[in-house]
Every structure is written in structure tokens, then in C-alpha cells.
Amino acid sequence: MTKPSEYMEAFFGVELNQKFEDMINDLHEIEDGLKKFSTELDKLEQEMDPSEFREMRREGKALIFEYGQEIKDAWQFLDFYLKSDKNTNQITLERDAYMKIYQIYKWDGADVRDLNTWIKELKEICEKVGLNARDLLNFKKLTAHPVPDEVSKFPVYAIDRQGYCLTSSGFDVVMHIDEVHEAMEERKGQH
Fold first, then answer.
1. Dihedral through CA 166, CA 169, CA 173, CA 177, nearest 10?
2. Which tops the pLDDT comparison, 103 or 15?
3. What pLDDT was estimated at residue 129?
4. b/e map of 77-107 (b: 16 or more CB within 10 Å)?
5. Residue 1 pLDDT > 60, yes or no?
6. CA dihedral 30, 32, 35, 40 (to 10 degrees)
7. pTM exceeds 0.85, yes or no
8. Contacts for 148-152 with beta carbons within 8 Å, 24 or more apart?
């Protein structure tokens, strides 16, 4: 039996906005490929019995061109729909932002670089949507490894199993815990 968390993982496991863009690009390629194949049938004429080839060519060319046209209609619809409907695009991007937040909160603590990458991706999505990633993130909800109090004010937002920390006001610098301690000592020496 499938657990509710598995449904969440599947639902949030895809960035819809990127998926739609990729699908449109794939449809362009398929359309071009089918139409090119339609023209390549001429080369087969030399290898087949002329009467068989004519019949196959006529049917095949019509079918391939029809599929190409259907694909063209689909990508034009998707392209128009995604570009013209700001509400749909906004909703899709907001959903992608919350998917990314869910991924961040489910971080297993193995490698802080994964967390760093996901936060960068969240920031990119937030820029498109007009949200501030800082407002959406609460690092206290990370359950992987608690950040020791003595380094949390550095600031350190997360620490992985190897002792690497996510730090800086932009949540975008990775330092080892020893480097954090050294930097804190340098600060004390300057005051």
C-alpha cells in the first residue's frame, strides 16, 4: 500500500513549469523529426517495388504529416496557454516553490551542498514569482541535524554529517565547522 508521503514525493517530485517548457521543446523536435521522416520516404522508393512503395508512401506520408500537425497544434496550445495565462503560470511556479521548500525540509543531512543547490533553485523560482525565499524558509524546521547553539549566530543554518555548514546571510556559503570556529575566533580578536 502506498503511503501518503510517497504520494507527496511523487506530486512534488516534478517542477511543473520546467516540465511544460521541456514538453513544448520535445514536441517541436518530434514535429520536425516526423516531417523530416516524411521527406525521407523518397529514398526508400529506390529499394522497393514501385507499386508497393507508392501505396506505402501515400498512406505513410499522410499519417506522419497528420501526426506532425497534431503535435504542432498541441505545442502551440501549450505555448499559448503557458505564456498568455499569467494566473496559470503563477500558480505553477508557486507550486514549484512550495515543492522545493518541501524538498529542503525533507533534507536527510547527508550533504549540505544538496541543500545549497535546492535553495539556489528556490531563489530562482521565487524571483519569477515575486516571492522572497528568506520569507519562506525556516531552518529550524530542518530535522536532519540540529545546529549547535554556539555557531547558530555566526550564522550557520544547517550542518551535514561531515561537519559542513550552510552559512552566510544569503544561505549560499558552505564552510566546514572548523572554518566557522576559526572565523568566529577572528571576529572575537577584532573586537
1. -50
2. 103
3. 87
4. eebeebeeeeeebeebbbbbbebbbebbeeb
5. no
6. -100
7. no
8. 151/177, 151/180, 151/181, 151/184
